[in-house]
Specification:
The complex is a heterodimer of chains A (320) and B (336). By secondary structure, chain A is mainly α. Chain A has helices at residues 2-29, 35-40, 46-56, 62-75, 87-122, 127-141, 144-158, 174-208, 211-218, 223-254, 256-261, 267-276, 280-308. In chain B, the strands form two sheets. Chain B has an eight-stranded mixed sheet with strand order 6-7-8-3-9-10-12-11, sandwiched between helices. A four-stranded antiparallel sheet of chain B has the order 2-1-4-5, covered by helices on one side. The chains are: A mainly alpha (320), B alpha/beta (336).
């Protein structure tokens, strides 16, 4: 177990290193990306551009620039080219909104997916199942930006049922916090509810044919106990894997669209701005932040997997 | 002998498939007396497992059609809902399945799986149910039951897992144990241990057992009475001795002939029954064994076989006349 975690941490650094190098290189080869030229203004003379360049350290060779940037990220001193603000601080400020959005949406999508998947599997082939199948296909097919726009238009502009977005800190007013987040939560969760309930349905249908389910029935357990304790419990293992990966992904940048449309001051919104203005330092920091969470949740999933399925032992060769 | 506790009458199970109706069990009738070990023998696909599972309503495929009667202590079980069957399953009729690896849920500790069953039927605390589980594990010969109860199924060997299954099946002291090929997945030595265990429980607790198997060796070891099934039908129903020493049906002769025997000179090959069991989609008219039978004559292929009873209990379905039946088959080792 300890060895497993150690190996995973080592792997995490390798991944972060590779990603940062790639992002850095991409940024340096795309056209019109020289920040000095843009900061210096439209009709700046070459001397001014050179001076800005020197100020930002952009006249150094690439490896040096890279190392400087990494050092600044990890010491929290990285500043943006465009706005001259501390990048790490800004990400830090965006965390509450992003986590509020992602955790809330995750709770919503997991609970709905379990309920829908369960009902679908139990009523397989019948009306409930078909209705839920259609519903989840609709959910999977709707693009987030469109859904968000529609919800905003109908539920907060036409009917004024919900606020039009923006984030209210939890510490300020918990009720308002939730009220402002209902639409974003729903928007972000819809896709996953569709996907997960489909996966859970098919897992459950497979599990229902397992011998141990027959045993559970032969033991005289009620149908409910059989379904929940034996069928559902064993079908949840793959769902947890999916969840870990997707949650890492959502925290690490997958919520950009939702945050942008609902104007939530989170890391995603910040990332969106950084991409629009081709601002390398925030971009780099956000990418590292995202990659960190994805790798982190991958590791958590692997550990959880061993907890959920006792046959899996971490860091050892599988028994024959 | 004490009374009949389970009476199966004209049980029929068919499955509607794309190719037609498969008649997996076709008019099976038998009685189980308290304290008896009844073996149901036959080749793969002869309907013995389906019969066993249908007894407690575990044949659940939506395309299955079940008719006939399963009468347990004057209570009709066929047609009851899962809910109504809950207090029969496990409490009165328990089951042990073929592959103990798959039959135990891999994600729960074995002690918990046994305790779960106890708590489903009795209003006892978790701790008490656990203690009972440990006691049960000990009674089926699992060493260190305290420690082993906290282990997961994959940490047990095949034989030990089957012991766990049996311990679980006995948790509520049922009347009837249905063991569906309980030793098929096990080594021969382990097989003998499991059979001895079943035999011991039968003698000590008066547990009635329905033992489903394709292995006559298993039958010989423990059974009191034997039901021979072929293509969904019972072809012979007799006591153990009658089956082994005075069998009447050519299919039973064939099964006995194909036994590997240590008490006789080794022949080059074991005798086998030629051909393969018929498709249950379109079984042959007349006797289903006729196409493979070396004693076949005209009636066999046209008319359903004659059911005859001799000596009260010995039933067979075959057109051969009594003399011919008496002449054939059987293991003639007892000075015959």
């Amino acid at each position: 177990m300890a060895r497993f975690v150690a190996r995973r941490l080592l792997g995490m650094f390798a991944v972060l290193f590779a990603i940062s190098v790639i992002v850095f290189l991409i940024f340096n080869v795309i056209p019109n990306s020289d920040p000095a030229a843009r900061i210096a203004g439209k009709n700046a003379d070459p001397a001014l551009i050179a001076r800005v360049s020197a100020d930002l350290g952009l006249d150094q060779p690439l490896p040096i620039q890279y190392l400087t940037m990494m050092k600044q990220i990890f010491t929290g001193q990285l500043t943006s080219y465009a706005k001259d603000r501390n990048v790490v601080e800004q990400i830090w400020e965006g965390l509450p909104a992003t986590f509020s959005l992602c955790i809330g949406a995750a709770v919503l999508w997991m609970s709905l997916a379990i309920v829908f998947g369960y009902l679908s599997a139990v009523h397989a082939g019948r009306f409930t199942d078909r209705a839920l199948t259609i519903l989840s296909l609709v959910g999977i097919s709707m693009p987030v930006f469109w859904l968000a726009a529609m919800l905003l238009y109908f539920l907060s502009f036409m009917v004024e049922l919900f606020p039009t977005g923006s984030y209210v800190p939890l510490s300020e007013n918990p009720l308002d916090w939730a009220y402002h987040l209902i639409l974003p939560w729903f928007t972000l969760a819809v896709l996953f509810v569709g996907l997960y309930s489909r996966v859970l349905r098919s897992n459950m249908l497979d599990a229902m044919n397992e011998d141990y389910v027959r045993t559970a029935r032969a033991k005289g357990l009620s149908e409910r106990q059989v379904r929940i304790r034996h069928v559902l419990r064993n079908s949840m293992i793959p769902i947890v894997t999916l969840f870990g990966l997707d949650f890492g992904m959502v925290v690490g940048g997958g919520a950009i669209l939702t945050e942008t449309v609902y104007n939530l001051d989170g890391v995603g919104l910040y990332a969106g701005e950084a991409i629009r203005s081709l601002d390398l330092p925030p971009l780099m920091a956000v990418v590292m932040f995202g990659a960190f969470f994805i790798v982190l949740f991958n590791t958590i999933v692997d550990i959880l997997y061993a907890v959920l399925d006792p046959r899996i032992r971490l860091g050892e060769a599988a028994p024959a | 002998m004490s009374g009949v506790i389970l009476k199966v009458d004209d049980l029929r199970v068919s499955f509607a498939t794309e190719d037609g109706v498969v008649q997996a069990v076709d008019g099976v009738s038998f009685e189980l007396t308290a304290g008896e070990i009844l073996a149901i023998v036959g080749e793969s696909g002869c309907g013995k497992s389906v019969t066993a599972q249908t007894l407690t309503g575990l044949t659940r495929a939506t395309n299955a059609r079940i008719t006939g009667s399963v009468n347990y202590r004057d209570r009709e079980l066929n047609g009851l809902s899962d809910h109504q069957l809950c207090d029969v399953r496990g409490e009165q009729i328990s089951m042990v399945f073929q592959d103990p690896m798959c039959a135990l849920n891999p994600v729960y500790r074995v002690g918990d799986q046994i305790a779960e069953m106890i708590r489903a039927h009795r209003d006892v605390s978790k701790r008490k149910a656990q203690a009972r589980a440990v006691e049960l594990l000990r009674s089926v010969g699992i060493p260190n039951p305290d420690r082993r109860a906290r282990h997961y199924p994959h940490e047990f060997s095949g034989g030990m897992r089957q012991r766990v299954m049996i311990a679980m099946a006995l948790a509520l002291e049922p009347d009837v144990l249905i063991a569906d090929e309980p030793t098929t997945a096990l080594d021969v030595t382990i097989q003998a241990q499991i059979l001895q265990l079943i035999d011991r429980l039968n003698r000590e607790r008066g547990l009635a057992v329905i033992l489903i198997t394709h292995d006559l060796g298993v039958v010989a070891e423990v059974a009191d009475r034997v039901l021979v099934m072929y293509a969904g039908q019972v072809v012979e129903d007799a006591t153990l001795d009658e089956i082994f020493y005075a069998p009447k049906h050519p299919y039973t002769w064939g099964l006995l002939g194909s036994l590997a025997r240590l008490d006789q000179p080794r022949t080059a090959r074991l005798v086998q029954i030629p051909g393969a069991p018929p498709s249950l989609l379109a079984p042959p008219s007349g006797c289903r064994f006729a196409p493979r039978c070396s004693h076949v004559f005209e009636e066999c292929t046209v008319l359903p076989p004659l059911e005859s009873r001799t000596g009260g209990m010995h039933l067979d379905r075959c057109w051969l006349d009594a003399d011919e039946k008496a002449h054939h088959g059987g293991l003639r080792t007892r000075g015959a």
